[in-house]
Design brief:
Elements lengths: L10 E3 L3 H12 L4 H15 L9 E8 L4 E7 L22 H4 L11 H12 L4 H14 L1 E2 L2 H6 L12 H10 L17 E2 L2 H13 L2 H4 L7 H8 L17 H5 L4 E3 L2 E5 L2 E5 L6 H12 L16 H21 L11 H4 L2 H7 L57 E6 L5 E7 L42 E7 L4 E7 L4 H13 L17
Antiparallel strand pairs: 1-9, 2-3, 2-10, 3-6, 4-5, 7-8, 8-11, 9-10, 11-12
Length: about 525
């Protein structure tokens, strides 16, 4: 199953040209898409540490052309065993302020990115982990040129946490070195060289000893012990409640998981997307299926790209999908009876966005109507459309979701000469993650546990917080892959809009990928 004409040597799209160039060299030398993806992911840790890295996690969707199979490597961060539903409540019983909780150790989940890459390479790659780390090690040691985008990101308030306090000063000593008299440091100048010696040392350790050096506290390097110690830092406003709960046992027990993607059809395409604990795939599919009855590309019908009616119906589909997300989506390893099939069942979604003059709250039916904004939106009940009965009555009285989610992540897509494709979303959650950098090892820790509800909704706590990273691929029913895309965190609406436009006009969605980020080999 060869790739489309014009992509015969392979195709790379990343948010920064340097990982794209490194990955493209791998393809040119005969490596496959999984090899190139591993190189790109590690390079992104060097050039975009504010968005992703080995202190975070993500989802890697892989299409294996020879087998005609698509699967997902789930490297989502996990909650430590000592986590509990009250962990984000302050001493007075009220939810912690998001900005304070997300920059404290209590927000740090057990990182999964490294285990995910290790698993993908061992199963489908041709390179060793050490070889995949090579370009990133060189870039960290030799230094990267600070561009305007990176310099601007260092102005983030998340690098101004507890100025003068050791735990948060570690990152500032690397990224905000031009501080003068300010204890918070200053932003680097565009064009200066940023060298990350500690990160290079860490990557060399991993290259020499494998991923276990990151997860084993008994290793003499002290890397794993440093991760555990760093996440014990607590914001002064929170006291001991702000300290992280991760232990050496939590690190040692982390495993990446291979999952089947969620799947649905839309306008002749088969959509495959990341499954729970990502809610992104289900949410995106819900939105697209609810939009399928609208001729979004037809200006004669009142729609068309960027028109008010188009944006309106996309918004309304998003509101319905996010109401369902808040109620019905979670970690299926802990809650196996969540109605994931019912949520994307054609009958349920037809009723969910029924074509009628007015919504019918009594039957959970709403009406997406161009020019109208629905009122009283709440979750529907997809359980009757699930093949297996779910016992989820306790969730029906769930509190509304009132937390803020991060808006920063990174994504890349790679295809090789054999037609294999990788679509990977990786993140440390918010920009600069928790702001906590592991001293002496040069990488930031995530704040992914703030994706849990701050107000407890049920007993027990899922091991993986729900999020919206959604690497996605589009397939023709013939099995030929023609396009891929992703959506991440709070950007589902524009993602769905960009997905639906080319599919509505039967164009190749791959044409919407910016050519400036897509080196061809």
């Amino acid at each position: 199953m060869p790739p489309s004409t014009g992509w015969a040597g392979g195709f790379v799209a990343t948010s920064d040209p340097r990982p794209a160039e490194a990955a493209a060299r791998v393809l040119a030398l005969g490596g496959n898409a999984v090899d190139a993806a591993a190189v790109a992911l590690f390079m992104l840790n060097v050039v975009e540490p504010q968005s992703s890295g080995i202190g975070g996690g993500g989802f890697m969707m892989i299409h294996l052309a020879a087998e005609g199979r698509t699967l997902v490597v789930d490297a989502r961060e996990r909650a430590p065993a000592a986590a509990d539903p009250q962990m984000f409540l302050a001493d007075d019983g009220q939810p912690m302020p998001f900005g304070i909780a997300s920059t404290s150790g209590v927000a740090v989940g057990v990182p999964g990115a490294l285990r995910g890459v290790e698993l993908a390479l061992s199963r489908w790659g041709t390179m060793t982990l050490a070889d995949a780390l090579g370009p990133a090690i060189a870039a960290a040691e030799e230094g990267i040129i600070v561009d305007e985008r990176f310099a601007d990101s260092t102005r983030s308030q998340r690098l101004e946490t507890e100025c003068g306090t050791g735990a948060w000063d570690v990152a500032r000593r690397v990224f905000r070195t031009n501080g003068g008299a300010s204890s918070c440091g200053g932003t680097p100048a565009v064009g200066e060289i940023l060298v990350q010696r500690d990160l290079a040392r860490t990557l060399r350790l991993i290259a020499a000893q494998g991923a276990d050096v990151f997860y084993n506290c008994d290793d003499p390097s002290g890397l794993a012990r440093a991760v555990v110690a760093t996440q014990r830092a607590a914001r002064s406003e929170l006291g001991d409640r702000g300290a992280g709960r991760m232990t050496c046992a939590d690190l040692a027990g982390y495993r990446a998981v291979i999952r089947e993607p969620v799947e649905a059809t839309y306008r002749g395409w088969i959509i495959r997307a990341a499954p729970p604990p990502s809610s992104g795939g289900l949410t995106l599919i819900q939105m697209l299926k609810m939009l399928e009855r609208f001729s979004l590309a037809d200006r004669k019908a009142g729609f068309g790209e960027g028109s008010a009616p188009t944006l309106n119906v996309v918004q309304e589909s998003m509101r319905l999908a996010f109401a369902d997300r808040a109620m019905w989506m979670g970690d299926t390893d802990i809650l196996p009876n969540l109605p994931t099939r019912g949520l994307i069942d054609d009958r349920y979604l037809s009723r969910r966005s029924a074509s009628c003059p007015d919504g019918d709250p009594a039957s959970d039916a709403f009406c997406i109507t161009p020019g109208l904004r629905m009122t009283g939106i709440r979750a529907g009940d997809p359980r009757p459309y699930e093949t297996a009965e779910a016992n989820l009555s306790k969730l029906m009285n769930a509190a509304p979701v009132d937390r803020q989610e991060g808006t920063e992540t990174t994504h890349f897509t790679i295809t090789d000469r054999w037609g294999n494709i990788v679509s990977c979303t990786t993140t440390v959650e918010a920009t600069w993650g928790s702001g906590l950098m592991v001293p002496g090892f040069g990488f930031l820790l995530n704040n992914e546990l703030t994706d849990f509800n701050f107000v407890p909704r049920q007993r027990g706590l899922p091991m993986r917080p729900i999020g919206i990273p959604a690497p996605t691929m589009l397939h023709r029913k013939s099995g030929h892959v023609r396009a891929w895309r992703h959506s991440s965190f709070l950007r589902l609406m524009p993602a769905a809009n960009s997905q639906s436009r080319p599919m509505a006009r039967r164009a190749d969605p791959g044409s919407s990928i910016p050519s400036s980020r897509s080196p061809l080999t």
